């Protein structure tokens, strides 16, 4: 089995009865905890118009997290690039890299990270997204290059800085793009697992080495809920199930505490839809997580596993990431 890194995806989840300030403090606490456990990176994702997710100003939050930690890489998983001008993102991440040298990642996606009406408010034009997104990536690479120093438009800060770019995807489209550009590829298996296997195969088969990367680098994001006992882990996972029910019902309210019985909440059809979306979610005690990690890695052979954990109790969320680290060490023989 191929060895792999583990990292954290944080959506800055807002919980019922908690404030956004509480959410940000929990995110910082989680990042510090992940750093102490030697997780590779801590990523935050851009979403808009959701009561349940507070990471809309992603670059600002990255700065907050990086300032409160010392060594863990911090970045975007991702910035939804067509929501922004390439120059602004180059300047923002140039500023972050200048403040926290060698620690900033720039993961890039093309989806809006929100609903259609909010996407319009963000100034997106859906007619040219597939053309605009690849062009913007090339613009970012130009702004970050030393060769752009003679251009009429320059990114300062940003110019000449080594800020690694990652292509994010939830379908096969971005797999082709990441392969063509020779960039690392991260797939959103935590909410769109249907095409993950196909996307990874496309990326591997079509990958073209670049000055950024000489061979494919594959990252998979999945949900994970670990606890001391299997029973506790499965109860804790009902917060995640309820979050997906709310998405199906278009009710993006704050995250709810766990419940004893999901059958009181979801219909049989909703249950089927949720479990389909969460097919690669890892749930259990440490021994179960070890087996699930082995099974996942034997199937997908990723270079890095990014774990997203919707757990209502913050201390139990911290404990879950600790169990995942121990399980990963056991699987890898570390």
TrEMBL record:
Q: InterPro entries of this UniProt entry?
A: Bact_Lucif_Oxidored (IPR050766), CmoO-like (IPR019949), Luciferase-like_dom (IPR011251), Luciferase-like_sf (IPR036661)
Keywords for this protein: Monooxygenase, Oxidoreductase
One CC-aspect GO term = cytosol
> Any signal peptide, and if so, which residues?
none
- Keyword check for Electron transport, yes or no: no
Q: One Pfam family, please name it.
A: Bac_luciferase
Provide any one GO MF term from the record: oxidoreductase activity, acting on paired donors, with incorporation or reduction of molecular oxygen
**Superkingdom field:** Bacteria
Q: Where is the Luciferase-like domain?
A: 16-298
Which family is it part of? To bacterial alkanal monooxygenase alpha and beta chains.
Q: Which PANTHER family match?
A: LUCIFERASE-LIKE MONOOXYGENASE
Recorded protein name is Luciferase-like monooxygenase
Q: What is the lineage of its organism?
A: Bacteria, Pseudomonadati, Bacteroidota, Flavobacteriia, Flavobacteriales
């Amino acid at each position: 089995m191929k060895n792999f890194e583990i990292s954290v995806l944080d959506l800055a989840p807002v919980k019922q009865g908690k404030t956004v300030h509480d959410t940000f403090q929990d995110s910082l606490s989680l990042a510090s905890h992940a750093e102490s456990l030697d997780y590779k990176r801590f990523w935050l994702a851009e979403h808009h118009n959701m009561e349940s997710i507070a990471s809309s100003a992603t670059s600002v939050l990255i700065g907050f997290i990086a300032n409160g930690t010392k060594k863990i890489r911090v970045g975007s998983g991702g910035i939804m690039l067509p929501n922004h001008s390439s120059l602004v993102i180059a300047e923002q991440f140039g500023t972050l890299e200048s403040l926290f040298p060698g620690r900033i990642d720039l993961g890039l996606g093309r989806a809006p990270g929100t609903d259609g009406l909010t996407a319009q408010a963000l100034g997106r034009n859906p007619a040219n997204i597939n053309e605009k997104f690849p062009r913007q990536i090339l613009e970012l690479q130009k702004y970050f290059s030393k060769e752009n120093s003679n251009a009429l438009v320059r990114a300062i800060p940003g110019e000449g800085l080594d800020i690694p770019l990652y292509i994010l995807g939830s379908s096969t489209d971005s797999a082709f793009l990441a392969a063509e550009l020779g960039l690392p590829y991260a797939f959103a298996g935590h909410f769109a697992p249907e095409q993950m296997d196909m996307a990874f195969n496309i990326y591997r088969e079509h990958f073209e080495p670049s000055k950024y990367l000489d061979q494919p680098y594959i990252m998979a994001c999945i949900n994970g809920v670990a606890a001391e006992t299997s029973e506790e882990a499965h109860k804790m996972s009902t917060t995640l199930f309820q979050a997906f029910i709310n998405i199906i019902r278009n009710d993006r309210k704050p995250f709810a505490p766990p419940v004893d019985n999901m059958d009181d909440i979801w219909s049989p059809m909703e249950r089927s839809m949720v479990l389909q979306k969460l097919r690669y979610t890892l749930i259990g005690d440490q021994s179960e997580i070890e087996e699930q990690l082995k099974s996942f890695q034997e199937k997908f052979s990723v270079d890095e596993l990014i774990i997203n954990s919707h757990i209502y109790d913050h201390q139990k969320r911290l404990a879950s990431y600790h169990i995942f680290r121990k399980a990963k060490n056991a699987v890898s023989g570390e």
